[in-house]
């Protein structure tokens, strides 16, 4: 289960790289001997790890330009899986995510989480809905003596 902080973090877009100007100022301060890595990091409100990585980047590439983004994980569900989903949902509009998970496992021999199923449904623009649960038994009100 994700905490509120986790949910808020997931909603925020990726942080942008520090500006080239800031990178040059950090390195210039280090080269002038204005302090230790930790002191310079604190002065420029960056982490000491950022400063160390910046030094390594300059040593390895000779540049302070940020490296390109790594890309992230490849989606498990391909277009053919989404087509299977669409057909199954059309035939079974009340299907639960667990049923979709089972169907995908049987048809495509692919095990995925319910979160992956939810992302696939979102990609297919299937509206979120509360599915009816098992019928609830009527609760009998007990008379409490007064």
Describe the structure.
This protein is an all-alpha fold. Among the domains are: 45 residues, Orthogonal Bundle (Arc Repressor Mutant, subunit A); 45 residues, no CATH class. 52% of the residues lie in helices and 0% in strands. It contains seven helices and no strands. α3 packs across α4 and α5 packs across α6. The longest helix has 14 residues. The radius of gyration is 26 Å and the shape is elongated. The protein starts with a helix and ends in a 23-residue tail after the last helix.
List the helices and strands and how they pair.
Blueprint: H1 4-11, H2 20-31, H3 37-43, H4 48-61, H5 79-91, H6 97-108, H7 114-123
Helix pairs in contact: 3-4, 5-6
- So what's the CATH class of the domain at 17-61? Mainly Alpha
Q: State which percent range the strand residues make up.
A: under 5%
Radius of gyration: 26 Å
Helical stretch count?
7
According to DSSP, the number of beta strands is 0
CATH topological fold name of the domain at 17-61:
Arc Repressor Mutant, subunit A
Distance between the termini: 43 Å
What is the makeup of the main sheet? none
Class by SSE composition: mainly alpha
* Spans where pLDDT lies below 50 across 5 or more residues: 1-12
Annotated CATH architecture of the domain at 17-61: Orthogonal Bundle
Mean pLDDT: 81
What is the share of helical residues?
Answer: 40-55%
Shape estimate: elongated
What is the string of helix and strand elements?
HHHHHHH
């Amino acid at each position: 289960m994700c905490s509120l902080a986790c949910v808020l973090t997931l909603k925020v877009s990726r942080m942008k790289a520090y500006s080239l100007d800031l990178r040059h100022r950090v390195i210039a301060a280090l080269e002038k001997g204005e302090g230790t890595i930790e002191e310079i990091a604190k002065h420029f409100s960056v982490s000491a790890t950022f400063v160390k990585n910046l030094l390594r980047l300059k040593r390895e590439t000779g540049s302070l330009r940020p490296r390109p983004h790594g890309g992230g994980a490849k989606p498990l569900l391909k277009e053919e899986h989404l087509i299977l989903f669409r057909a199954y949902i059309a035939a079974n509009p009340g299907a639960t995510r667990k049923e979709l998970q089972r169907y995908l496992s049987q048809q495509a021999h692919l095990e995925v989480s319910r979160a992956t199923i939810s992302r696939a449904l979102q990609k297919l623009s299937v509206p979120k809905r509360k599915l009816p649960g098992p019928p609830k038994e009527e609760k009998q009100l007990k008379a409490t003596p007064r």
